[in-house]
Structures are given as C-alpha cells and as structure tokens.
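Inputs:
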Amino acid sequence: MKQLSTKVTGNGHGQDSSYFLGWEEYEKNPYDEIKNPNGMIQMGLAENQLCFDLIESWLAKNPDAASLKRNGQSIFRELALFQDYHGMPEFKKAMAEFMEEIRGNRVTFDPRKIVLAAGSTSANETLMFCLAEHGDAFLLPTPYYPGFDRDLKWRTGAEIVPIHCSSSNGFQITEAALQQAYQQAHKLDLKVKGVLVTNPSNPLGTALTRRELNLLVDFITSKNIHLISDEIYSGTMFGFEQFISVMDVLKDKKLENTEVSKRVHVVYSLSKDLGLPGFRVGAIYSNDEMIVSAATKMSSFGLVSSQTQYLLSALLSDKKFTSQYLEENQKRLKSRQKRLVSGLESAGITCLRSNAGLFCWVDMRHLLDTNTFEAELDLWKKIVYNVKLNISPGSSCHCTEPGWFRVCFANMSEDTLDLALKRLKTFVESTDCGRMISRSSHERLKSLRKKTVSNWVFRVSWSDRVPDER
Amino acid sequence: MKQLSTKVTSNAHGQDSSYFLGWEEYEKNPYDEIKNPNGIIQMGLAENQLCFDLIETWLAKNPDAAGLKKEGQSIFKELALFQDYHGLPEFKKALAEFMEEIRGNRVTFDPSKIVLTAGSTSANETLMFCLAEPGDAFLLPTPYYPGFDRDLKWRTGAEIVPIHCSSSNGFQITESALQQAYQQAQKLDLKVKGVLVTNPSNPLGTMLTRRELNLLVDFITSKNIHLISDEIYSGTVFGFEQFVSVMDVLKDKKLENSEVSRRVHVVYSLSKDLGLPGFRVGAIYSNDEMVVSAATKMSSFGLVSSQTQYLLSALLSDKKFTGTYLNENQKRLKIRQKQLVSGLEAAGVTCLKSNAGLFCWVDMRHLLDTNTFEAELELWKKIVYEVKLNISPGSSCHCTEPGWFRVCFANMSEETLDLAMKRLKEYVESTDSRRLISKSSHERIKSLRKRTVSNWVFRVSWTDRVPDER
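Outputs:
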C-alpha cells in the first residue's frame, strides 16, 4: 500500500523549478566581499534590505517592544498565553492604519475584517482553501511569482490557468487575454473561481494601471467570481504615481458594500515593505464575513507569534515612524532601481520601466542564441555559473516569451550591485555579437529618450490621462 | 455557482462542539477575583501557568534573548531576514536536546530530523497531508482532544475512526479495540494509514503503559501503517514513573533504524510544558527522509517567527535553566493535581488516577439523571451556568461512556481552584439524592485506598511489572 501521500511523492511543491535551483547554487558558493569575492551574487531574492537602520534606531529608542514589556513592566505572561486566532487587537488596528497610510488614506480598512496569517504564503493558501474546491481554477496573469504554484495548488488541489500577457503592451492585462484564459479553463473542464493578481506585480515591478483594475473588477462582476489582490509590494512604490489599490477602484466605482465588494479580497504582508520575512506576518482582508470567519479558524494552522505581534503593533502604532519609513523607503528604492537600470543600460540591456517592487524585469532576448526557452535556460546557466549572478529566468515565472529575467536590487549593498553590473557588462561584451548589440543598444536607448512616443519596450504607467500606448 | 468552498460553508471546523461553546460562555462572563467574583471559572483550558516566574527570572537575567541581541550586539537584521524553512540550527539543536532531557537522555533526537511548525496544530495537520490522501483514515483512541477533528480532518479530507476505550480498564488501549477499529474502517471503505495517540493522553492525564506502546508498535508493524505519537505533554509527567516515549520502545525492541521506525513520527510543542501557546512553537520528528523533506517544505505555511526561535534557542540552550525548570514544573503540577483531586473527593467525586497533564479525567457518572449523553449535556449546562465552572464534557472528546469530564488545574491560582472546588461541593450537596452519595462516596474512597487490588475506577500505570489489572 502506498504509504506516503501523493503530496509527498509528487513534485507539486514546485521546487524542481529553476527559481529554487538557482537559490541552491547560490547557497553552495555565496558572495562575500571579504571571504568569497568571486562567489555568486544573489539577485534572485526579493528582499528589502535598504531600511533596516530606521527600524534598528526605533528599536534602540523603544526597548520595551522587543523586551516583552509595557511601560517598563513585564507582560511576558500575557503574551506567552495569547493564542487567540482573532489576533492582538492593537496589532490589527495598527496594521489596518498602516495599510491605509500606504494608500494615502483614501480608503479605510476595518481591523475586524483582517485575518492574520504566518506570512502571505499562508494567507494565499488559506484563501484558496476558502474559495476553491479540488480541481477549481484561479486565473493568474503571467509572468507570476513562482511560489504560487506551491502556495495556491499543492495542498489545496486548486489549479492555475494563466492569463497570457506579452511584451507587446508592456505585459498589461487585456480583456482579450482574460476571456481567453477563462475559455481555456472551460476547455480543460475547470470551474473558474476567481482571478488572482499581484499588485504591484512580481516579477514585473509595475503597478496595475487604473484601466487594468477597472477591467478586472468588471470581469469578476460579469463572471460572478472572486478577485484576490496580493498587495504585498504596495509599500514599495517609488514612481511618480501613487499606488492604486483595488480598494480605490471599488470606492471610485461606488461599489463599496455591494455584493461585488464581498468577492474582492486583499492579501498583505510585512515581508517586503518592512523587510521582515523572518517574522512571518501576513494578512487577509475580506468584506465577506463567512470568509473572515473561516479564514480566522484556519489561521490556527499558522498564527503569528504573539511576541512578534506585540513588537510590530508598537512599531506600526508609531505614526511618526511609519510615515518617515514609507517616505525614506520609497526614496532609497528609487535610487537603487536607477542604479540597476543605468548599470544594465551600459551593458546594452534594457528592462521594463518599473515604478515599484524590489526588482526589475530585464530584457535579455537579444542575448539568446535562439528565441526559445532552451536558449533562455542556457543563458541563465551561463549567468549563474560563469557570471556568477543568481537571477530568475522568466520561464520559472511562466512568462510566455523567452529571454526575460527578474533581477533584484534591494537585497545587497551599493558596492555589490555595482560589482554585479560590472560582471554582467564584462560578460556581454565578451560575447562577440553581444559587443555590437551592447554599443548599438546604448545608442538606441539614448535616442529613444528623446522621442515622445514611447517605444514598445517601455511601459508608461505614469499617466492614466494619456491613452495607454505600450 | 457555489462561491465559497465547502470547507467554509460546512461545520467541519468542528467549532460547533460544546468544547468551544463552553469557552464562549466563559468569555462572556469570566471570573475575576476582584472585578467579577461570581463569574465563570475557566477549567476547560489546558494551559500551564505554574512556572512563568522561572522564565521571567531567566528573561531578566538574559535580556539579549528577547532584545534581538547577541553578546550585546543587535542581530535584528539577521533575524528579520531569516526565513529558511530548515529552521534556526541553534534552535533545532536546543529543542532536540530538550526533548532528550525530558526522556531522561535515554534516546537521542537528531536535529536534522526535526521540522519546525507554528504549533503542534500545524504539525499534526502537516503530517496528515504527508501521510493521508483525502478519504484515508487514522485510528485514534477515545477519548481524544476535540481539536483533532479540525486539525486532522478539516482541510486534509482525512477521516478519524475511533479506537473505543472504556473505563472498565482505565481507558487503556487493547488489542481487540485496535482490531475492531481497523475492521470498522474497512467496513466504511476507508484505507487506514495509521494510528495517532497522544502520550501522555489528553484528556485522560495518563501516560501510555509500556504494554500499550508495545501493542501499538506491533500493530503498526503487522498492518504496515504509521504511528504518530503526539508527545506535547511529555514534560508534564509528575507521577513516580518516568515518561516512556514511543522512541524508548523502538530502542528497547531494537527497532531503531529499521523500516518500522520510519513509520513512527513524534509531534512536540512548547505550548504545554513551557506554557507558551502564544509563541507558536511546534515540531515534527520523523525518521523518514521523504516525510522530513516534504514536511519541511510544507512548513512554509506555518513557520516559527525567527524572533521567537532566537529567544527560545537561548532559553533552551541554558541547561541549568532546563534542568531546574523540568524539576520544578513537575513538583508544582503534582501539588496542584493533588489539590484538585482532594477537592473533588470532598465533593464525593472521583477521577481517573493521573500522572501527567494539566487536567484530570473526572467521573461524574453518579451525578447523571440517566446514563445518557443527553443527561451529560444537562449536567454540563448546570455546571457551566449554575456552578459557573467551564469544564469539558466527555462527549466533546468522543468518549463512549457518558458522565466523564475533563477538568483543568494548572491555569489558575490556588485560591481560584479552591473556590471552584467549594462551588462544586456546594452544588453536589445541594442536590438531594446527591447528598447521600457524597457522604458514602467519601467513605468508600477512604476504604479503597487500603486495598491492594485497585478498583476499576483507578488506573494504575505506575507499575508495569505488575500485570495490568484495571
């Protein structure tokens, strides 16, 4: 008799993907400025290491928060016993307000509609358990975060059907792509339960436009399905525009408190904005009482440590800290992204114009031998093993076009980033055909900037008042 | 189209059970010595509040552990980023050694076989996902922890088939009960994947005897199935005998490193022994590499906060502390249990002789109007609403005999326990027919102690050398 479940013996954990394999290679030979200067530079991990100093200063000034004290008195006992899956009220309140602050206080979040979870990994899986039966499907725009294959499908038995997005319009979601995905699900005899988007997008590094958001809300309305908006990167927006949440759109369309709004759910986490993936803090926000109720019970399987809830409720309740943090975070991300983009340009490489996130979506199609995923994998191996940079190949993100890579910029020092770009430039120039492309790309880019009509390579998400030309 | 999953719309979360309803009643009217002296006393929550002072003292002497520092230097950044699902090595090492210490260092635990999870709630569910397909069954001896209905079945789709235990032999597991359960599963067309026991038992408060453990190991060997031993209460053993783990039995039967040993898995947690349910620290221990590997990946859905891993690795690495703690914990639990048992006796109420746990399994059959579960529920309501004690009725633990209740003793002060016993005595004496029974029960118990042959009410688990007479 089969002794272990198919979840164990199958590869539904999704970890045979290159996304995870590159990580493993890095672990074997990690770069260290002093101890291993020729090691692999990790550019495949979307971490935000730019603002730890701000949190460390706050911790030094507020020692009670970490020391399990309140006003100098130990509250260890209270915290040790606190396992209420409704979560610490002060913490949920602070989270709700932080989420509002990120959205310019244009929308409100009711703390009672928040369900805490051990990271957004847990939040997303829990939502799947609530919204989908075995074999039901969710539509996801490609490219998407490789972890979703595990998080949404592995233990839930749900399926993902891709909404194909292409570089022809900067990977934006179109009506046609949505309908096509929906029909594909039908062909596969899968019941579509909803759409899940990450906004701002991982791996694109772009915020969804208002047009796309309206399109999504209209789509789920007409199909009577759910919309999950994973807004984990909402606090990493550094472009000129402010972040538009699906909650903004519901408000602007006067759909708050309607039946549709009960089918829109937001997922959040402090892993990216605050750089705290180790603390395991995620949240589901839903207007549907039954979901809040069920997800709350399910959160028993992944509660946030009370020790951590307490520390972060103190941190996030400090409005002086939060506003300073969000502003500084934005500044530093912007300048770091610029650094990556110029470094890539001098290597003759362009990327999708981004305004959020901890990474860029880099176009290396011109470096492929052939326009195939095999060629992409070959290039990736060269970059990992020869150039010693761990970056994520687009195929691991289910991108339909070969040659795109996600490159992270916020998880290393400026010097390390410079070194990485230098190595990349050296590699590109060492390839014969690469050398010519590098130069001519560089020229081309210079002239492009002078044009007013944006090239198809650039994504203009900054002006919704101008018709979207991609 | 059905918009929410059946997991949401049905009651498989198990929270319609009286176990949780009593809890709700308590929340509405909680006892407080000063503010609400007539409120409901919580005796339904298996918490260990007896040794917080020991931990608080340790924290005061070791401020770095909670303060996110190592040798005075901030390691905040390192912890904030640490999300490796393999867990903090120092913590797994300390946990392994703590588990060894609890078992008198007779067996060894390899840290690389430990999978950390957010509480044993998460650990048990994860093991189900690894060992069972939807529709497969695990056999559990009754009475069992009500939470298992949710933890083992809800999202996994697994089934529980009870192994009926009765008061005729002190609720011990017998060969025939095991076989009967196995056959029952087959009648129901369910594939049995294993047996799950809690040792020491919740709600019985007793350790499994060596004979029962041998029986279990032989049973899973012959049926080629798994054995999960939830040893969450292993550090609460206060009787004369030491705790015998299934790991001891494997060693004594020379089955370590055998194929059978790969089908024996231990679950642990710091929620009961250390009284830290709020910190969400659980673990799976397995000799099966594939289970460790899959469970490790699944732990992504419920990782332990790095902040908490660090604090507890410091605490548990301090052997002086752990030695003192385990010793003192045992002492205080023993005293408190005695206090409960005498208080019950004075009310003419007996209980299963216990040697572990944070509760007693109390015999109130003589207080029932009829030998039915309806009568048990009537009695329970009286005790909750009139006597104002929240205790857990045996039916919520799937006990096959009406009239048994689980009563906790380690989650309140001595004075509160005295008050609870006083209230109970008054109630029992106030019932006319009860008055006679109360007096004669008291006499009867006194004389019983003089006998050498134990009455069937008492469970003798202290002398395995004597043939088990229950």
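Remarks. Residues 319-346 of chain B form the longest helix (28 residues). Chain B touches chain A through 74 residues (CB under 8 Å).
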